[in-house]
Specification:
There is one protein chain. By secondary structure, this protein is mostly helical. The chain has three domains: 5-46 and 441-584, no CATH class; 62-130 and 381-431, no CATH class; 137-343, no CATH class. It has 25 helices and nine strands. It has helices spanning 5-14, 21-46, 62-77, 88-100, 106-114, 120-130, 135-151, 165-177, 182-191, 220-231, 250-257, 333-343, 345-360, 380-392, 397-405, 408-411, 443-454, 462-476, 495-503, 505-510, 518-524, 529-541, 547-559, 564-576, 579-582, and strands at residues 194-195, 263-269, 278-285, 300-303, 309-312, 439-440, 478-481, 487-490, 583-584. Strands 1-3-2 form a three-stranded antiparallel beta sheet, with no helix packed on it. The chain has a two-stranded antiparallel ribbon with strand order 4-5. Strands 6-9 form a two-stranded antiparallel ribbon. A hairpin with a 5-residue loop joins strand 7 and strand 8. Helix 1 packs across helix 2, helix 6 (120-130) packs antiparallel against helix 15 and helix 9 packs antiparallel against helix 12 (333-343).
């Protein structure tokens, strides 16, 4: 199929479809999508296979038991029966994607399968977060996740940007490689001073979080981003008026904004340039005289909708006031808000909610960064306990990962049954986590998975490989600006995206039979055709092929006149373009 587009056009004619050359590419995409759906349906039928239970797990943190007991109570209340424990290889694929951002290699699948201990799943998670073999990938994956959260997918790529994307990623990679406590990382991001670009004097990568947010609109972007990302409080709507459903009022917004009014990002220019090209930025704290030009008070003014002007001083969300002086030597407002955030229970809840959503598809609230009392919370007691336990763990993100990945909601199959099909958050219901919720890979996960599964993109220097990755991402990701200055990503299986997957350079390299390629090595290896097909399915989908899929491969082999390489090429192309490959399930 991948090698015979003329046959597809002939098929279109046989189906009575008149198709022009200009529309032929779109037709190829649609036919291939239907072929992918065939794989997905076969997968759904195969998912009822009896998985091996991991019920004899021992010596797991008490938080795992808390999660399981809470979930069991919820399932009983709603008369739901959870799906069975997921098969080992499928679960292995799931946890690799979530913890280090890619699917396992065939060899990693084999290593996991050889482990016969009852705690093999815990051992795998422990390897992924603690083994030196995975430190770099772990750090790279989470730095990518958090770079997108903090500055967006386009952060640092805008014209005359003050943000260094490389500087942001370097700081975050160091944090995750060292397993820096989460609260320390947040404090540094909120209070950082220094330059944004690696290699410059005074470099501090943490400054890139606020570099583009403090200068514009009197720091309102910084106000909104800090409260939303780190405290889970949506305050941007209260900038101009009181919100009818939000406990934060206009007064509270400007009181929080006052903490950021001493901060500026200074442009540092390329030496000797005529037009003053910006090379990087330097984030500094400087004295703030206030809008009344009285630095000993340093008040700010805001206007109510009725036209009345009011004054605001720095006051934290819990009502804690700090000194009013705008002199940095007397009161460093950002340092003070950083300290106050460290004491706030919202700090704990915001990160637990975000991490729970990362691994399970949905948070305890929807959206994940809105913890206000107006927003309903599912599993409220469990949420509170996990948040408190995370603080007690000294904000160890790796421990939080273990708690979630070892819990029953993360262990069970994505296969819905008649006993839990009512648990469907896409219909607006609160998630009950009685089955694993399938979701698309992120664009970054897809790229890394394609690269690892096919051993592609290994040509040239690391810089050349990175450039190919960035070029691929730019083509694949569609970003839309939002009021908060970030963006959402559309990864919706559109015709351009589909054609890029079907026929893009990465896929062409993946299915190459050139000497030295991964597929060429498999084709020339010992073993039967069926064994090689099993190799493909395990490497790409984390499972063995069904009987029907083996029959399809046999038919292709006949059509290929027993050319094993061509058959593997067609099957591998179909696997990589299937819905099952693109989804985390």
């Amino acid at each position: 199929m991948a090698q015979n587009p003329r046959r597809l056009k002939s098929l279109a004619n046989e189906m009575g479809i008149s198709i022009s050359n200009s529309l032929f590419a779109a037709f190829v995409g649609l036919v291939a999508i239907q072929f992918s759906l065939c794989f997905s349906m076969l997968y759904a039928d195969d998912a009822v296979a009896k998985p091996k239970s991991d019920a004899k797990r021992v010596n797991l943190p008490i938080q795992v038991e808390k999660i399981d007991k809470s979930m069991a109570s919820t399932w009983a209340d709603f008369k739901l029966r959870p799906s069975v424990v997921e098969e080992d290889t499928k679960w292995c694929r799931r946890v690799f994607l979530d913890v280090i951002g890619r699917i396992p290699t065939y060899e990693e699948f084999a290593e996991f399968a050889k482990d016969k201990s009852p705690n093999k799943r815990f051992a795998l998670v422990d390897r992924l977060i603690n083994d030196d073999r995975y430190t770099e990938e772990y750090a790279n994956h989470w730095s990518t996740v958090w770079t997108n959260v903090l500055i967006g997918r386009n952060g640092g790529m805008e014209d005359r940007s003050l943000t260094s994307r490389a500087g942001m990623q370097k700081y975050l990679r160091d944090c995750f490689a060292r397993n820096k406590p989460y609260n320390d990382m947040v404090y540094e991001l909120v209070t950082a001073t220094g330059t944004t670009k690696p290699g410059t004097e005074g470099f501090n990568g943490a400054t890139n979080f606020l570099a583009m947010k403090v200068n514009e609109e009197d720091g309102t972007q910084a106000t909104a981003a800090v409260s939303r990302i780190f405290l889970g409080l949506q305050v941007q709507c209260t900038q101009c008026h009181n919100h009818p459903f939000n406990q934060w009022k206009q007064q509270k917004f400007w009181e929080f904004n006052a903490f950021f009014r001493q901060t500026r990002a200074l442009r540092r220019f390329v030496p000797g340039t005529v037009n003053g090209d910006v090379d990087h930025a330097e984030l500094i704290n400087q004295d703030f005289a206030g809008e009344g030009r009285r630095p000993e008070q340093a008040e700010i003014y805001f206007q109510l909708r009725n036209g009345l002007t009011k004054v605001a001083y720095p006051v934290f969300l819990d009502g804690t006031e700090i000194g009013k002086s705008g002199y940095v030597s007397e009161v460093n407002r950002r340092d003070e808000v950083g300290k106050l955030m460290m004491r706030s229970p919202f700090l704990d809840k915001a990160i637990v909610n975000r991490m729970w959503a990362h691994f399970l598809g949905y948070g305890f609230t929807k959206p994940v960064d809105d913890l206000g009392p107006h927003n309903p919370t599912t599993q409220a007691q469990l949420f509170d306990e996990l948040s408190s336990d995370f603080r007690a763990s000294s904000y160890d993100l790796k421990q939080l990962i273990v708690w979630i990945t070892m819990s029953q909601p993360y262990q069970i199959s994505s296969k819905m049954t008649k006993d839990n099909e009512a648990d469907d958050p896409t219909l607006g219901e609160a998630p009950k986590f009685s089955h694993f919720y399938t979701r698309q890979m992120s664009a970054e996960q897809l790229y890394q998975s394609l690269s690892v599964a096919t051993q592609a993109n290994r040509k040239g220097s690391l810089e050349e490989q990175q450039k190919r990755r960035e070029d691929w991402m730019r083509q694949f990701v569609v970003a839309f600006g939002t009021d908060e200055g970030d963006e959402t990503t559309t990864f919706n299986g559109s015709i351009p995206q589909s054609l890029m997957l079907f026929n893009g350079e990465l896929i062409r390299e993946a299915i190459s039979l050139d000497s030295g390629s991964w597929l060429h090595g498999l084709a020339q290896s010992k073993g039967s055709g069926t064994e090689k097909i099993q190799h493909l399915f395990i490497a790409g989908l984390g499972r063995r092929p069904t009987k029907k899929e083996v029959e399809v491969a046999s038919q292709i082999l006949v059509a290929r006149k027993n050319e094993v390489g061509g058959m593997l090429q067609d099957m591998w192309w179909a696997i990589l373009n299937s819905n099952e490959f693109i989804f985390n399930h």
